[in-house]
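The instructor's notes for this session suggest beginning with a concrete chain rather than abstract definitions. Hand out the sequence below and ask the class to guess, before any prediction is shown, which regions might be ordered.
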Amino acid sequence: MAEHMPLPSTYFADDVYCIAFWNNVVLIDLDGDMTVSRMQKVGEAYRALLAKYPRIVAVCVMRPGTPVASADARAEGARFTKELGEAVARIAMVIESDGIVAQMLRSVVRGISVLARSKAFSLETDVNEALRTLAPLVISSGPRDQVQLDLKDAWHAVRANFRPRQAAAGE
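After discussion, reveal the predicted structure:
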């Protein structure tokens, strides 16, 4: 029987987002305003995982209703992405919104990519597609198909355990 990788560990969570680690993967579930201080925490998380791995990948899923980050927050994201360079092999972005807001968020992601001079960013249609693009970049001795399944399980654990403000307020 194949050995599965452990579940993700939470690096930081508040009422807007959760940052978790699974192997060399940063998993971010965002449901609210990405402020400068929150963006700085993402950069801190990247650096913390890079202290353990030579390269990392990330998935950031923006839930419906996530607003466009401020210009300062976007600049901070571009700054640390540029600083970390090729050590961040891929940042798969998923925007769960529809319509005009989704188009604005996609434009913002493209803009950060240009400012950071990074080819690491990718816009994916859904979480499953994002995880498929990251799976080959996971540092693991396990079989690729099992890594993809384990990565999917890790994402579902993060999503199941994160309780954003909006969900908590609706109870």
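Then share the key points. Residues 167-171 have pLDDT under 50 and may be disordered. The domain at 9-169 is CATH 3.30.750.24 (Transcription Regulator spoIIAA).
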